[in-house]
Every structure is written in structure tokens, then in C-alpha cells.
DNA sequence: TGTACTGTCATGGGATACCAAATATATTAT
DNA sequence: ATAATATATTTGGTATCCCATGACAGTACA
């Protein structure tokens, strides 16, 4: 793998070196360019990025704490390979957290929030690119739960986003029927929120997220 | 702070140095011996533990990823000082996750599980030490959600345990009335589980966890 | 034929020494 | 008194060396 290519996508090295290495590797992993199981040799990475092995090790340790990298003691690091079971676990937790956060946020939503949600849906109908769709999907959930102002929830959702979505992108957004269904579900959630039925909207959101479990790639361990 | 004292409590240095340093610092933080806001100077730690600054830095980065340490770029690390608001956020997420996990686990519980839960409650009635009570409380929740077999949930719950409980220990377990109430709530949860009402038991558990919000120390920022 | 031992090699893990950058504090000049 | 400047402290990073570990290949031996 050409780490320099990844580095360019992330941008110039600014601030702490370790932070930069972290961003480069995380970008590589979450984008899918570094696939699960890929060996991440310290010397290779440090040579390609022209840094010493120290900040590389620190970045790897942090990525391990975030689940993105698995460190086998004395045998090096690999990009974490999720199992189907773990992926299912993640979707259930994501659904649970999102439900509760939406349950709190929706009663606090303004008219502008609702309008913004509708705009996101309209953009989704026109989206063409895989990553653009994912971004809009994430945006929808962000607006929906914004008013809850729960930083811990945001962190957990972000963690799951980093870990899980690289496995789901293709399955979720490449099939037109699935795309249409997903947008329809978003619309149903928004309609319920508009009607002031926070319980119904949150419940829809919960089920909507759990739907993803049915689209986990077949060829997973 | 005497880091050597902490090190002895953790045990001898086995395996990777970095891993050992991590355990020492985490033990110090979660136990409350290293209080929020305490400066963790790299040289001090490495000198006290007779290791170089390399594994110390790695341990600090991991602790940062877990929320226990806050790194101020170029200005060092401190033990994370939670705000009241963040602590409340954590309890809500803990309640949400526990609810869903219990909802799944309870229908799968065996007779032995239920007996074990009752035993934990009986032990709680006799517990005298602060840490013993906390351990039993954690044990109760562990048995209750064990059958759900959701590793991601376990990790998140453990993360919150590490971050939040050092602030709650005194408030939750030092007051006798509060203790009795907590045990009674555990009994109510178990009774509902025994009666086969997973929904009721999970709902009780949810509210039981949220109760902790009322016992957050007054003197928090 | 198969098993156990041995040596080599790639890689990770860690120590040491040194330097650069950033921040806080003290000092000096006006 | 205040702005500018020096100084000390600490972190962040590099280079280099060395040891430990696990994988693997080959070899001896039963």
C-alpha cells in the first residue's frame, strides 16, 4: 500500500506528527483503502511518511484503543477485521443509542431543524456518489439527534461509524431499491417528527438502523 | 503522587512495558488515587517506574483515547476532570445500553443465572467496604446482561465504568438509605425477571441506573 | 516417516541521548 | 507599570543501538 498517497488525501503535516499519522491511517482504514487484515509494519509506515517509528507506534496504539487496529504482541499490527457477529452488535448498539438520543432531541427541534432534514432528504434523492450518500446519511442522523447535546453519545456513534461503515457502504448504497427504501424511511421518520410524535419517530429510526443488519455482506467470517 | 505505590498494587511488570504502565495509570485513575486534574508529567512517571518515556507516552495516548486522560498539546497531560454535564450524559447512555442489553439477555437467562443474581443481592446486604459494594454492583449488571453476548456493549459499559464511577463511588455507597434503596431496586429487577417480564425488568434497570444522576456530587464544575 | 531441536531472520519493543518547539515565568528596559 | 526579552521547563520527535519474540527452514535423530 502506498501510504504517501493516503497522506496527500489527508493534507499537509500540521501540528503534531503523531496526530497526522493517526489521521492518515484512520482515513485509510475508514475509507476502505486499507482493508481489514492488512499488515501495518511500523518501518514501512514510518519510512513512507518520513517520520520516525515513535509517532507511528503512538498512532497505532490509539487506533487500537478505537478498535480500528489490532495489535498482536511482538507480531505487529493489522487493520481490524470485523466479524459478522461484531458488526451486528455494533448496529444494535447504534440503534439503541440513536433511539434514546432522538427521543430526547426531537421534542426540542426547531422549525429550521425540520426544514434542514427535508433538505437532506432532497439531496439524497439526487446523490450519485457512494461517499456522498454516506455523508448525507450521517448528516441526517446528526441533525436528528443534534438537540440532545450528548457528547458521549456523539463519541460512541462516531466510533461505530469509523468501525462499521467501511463494511456497509457498498451493501447499503449500491442497490437502487435499497436506496429508495432508505430514503422513504427517512421521510417517515421526519413526518412523525413533524407530527410531534417523538416516540414514533425514534422508534422508526431504531428500526431503520437495525435494517442495516440485513445487508451485511455474505462473505464475512 | 507516588507512582511506585500504585505499581505495587497492580503487580509485577509482566509482558509489554507499555501495557504495564497503562494498567498502573488506569488503576490509579479509576481507583480515585489520581484525582481529576492531576498533572501526569512524563519524566516523573518514567522515573518513578524506571522505564523510559516511550512506553509512558504510548500509555498516555491510549488513556486519552479512552477518555481517562486529557492531553493538552505541548503542555502535558492531566487526569480528565469530568463535568457534571458529561457525567449525566454518561449515565443516560449507560442506562440506554443496559436497557437494550437486558431486554435481550433476560429471556435467555437460566435458572442458575437467577440464583446467582439473588446471591449477589444477599452479598450486597452484607458488604461493608466501598469498593466491595461497587464490585458487587458491577457484578449484578454483568450477570444481568451476560446472555446478550454483545461485546461492543460490554466495551462501552466498561469505558463508562472506568470514566464515571470514580466520581460516584462515595455518593452511591456511603449513605445507608441510598444503599438500601439500591438493593431494593435490584430485588425488584430480579423479581420481574423471575416472573418472565423482561420488559418490566429492563425498564426498572434503566430507571435504576438513571437514579445515579441524582447523586452526582454538588461540588462538580 | 515423523518429531524435536536448532539457528536464522524479520519485526516489534524498549532504552538512551540528543535536539527542537512551545509554554510559562522571570527579568529587564523604557 | 508595561512591553519586550530572556530563561527554564516540559513536551514532541529523531536517530541509533540492543534485546526479545515468534516464524520458519533445515537438520539430526528415533
Could you give me the name of the CATH homologous superfamily of the largest domain in chain A? GntR ligand-binding domain-like
Largest interface: A-B, 27 and 27 residues
Helicity range of chain A: 55-70%
Q: Measured on Cα atoms, how large is the radius of gyration of chain A?
A: 19 Å
| Model regions low in confidence, pLDDT < 50 over at least 5 residues of chain A | none
> So what's the oligomer here?
homodimer
Strand content of chain A: under 5%
The name of the CATH architecture of the largest domain in chain A is Up-down Bundle
Number of domains of chain A: 2
Q: The CATH topology of the largest domain in chain A is what?
A: Four Helix Bundle (Hemerythrin (Met), subunit A)
Number of strands of chain A: 3
Strand ordering within the main sheet of chain A: 1-3-2
What does it look like?
The structure is a homodimer of 221-residue chains. The first copy, chain A, has 221 residues and is mainly alpha-helical. Chain A has two domains: 3-79, Arc Repressor Mutant, subunit A (Orthogonal Bundle), CATH 1.10.10; 84-215, Up-down Bundle (Four Helix Bundle (Hemerythrin (Met), subunit A)). The first copy, chain A, contains ten helices and three strands; from the N terminus they run H-H-E-H-H-E-E-H-H-H-H-H-H. A three-stranded antiparallel sheet of chain A has the order 1-3-2. In chain A, helix 5 (84-105) crosses helix 8 (151-173), helix 6 packs antiparallel against helix 7 (130-145) and helix 9 runs antiparallel to helix 10 (198-210). Chains A and B meet through helix 4, helix 5 and helix 8 of A and helix 4, helix 5 and helix 8 of B. The structure holds a DNA duplex (30 and 30 nucleotides).
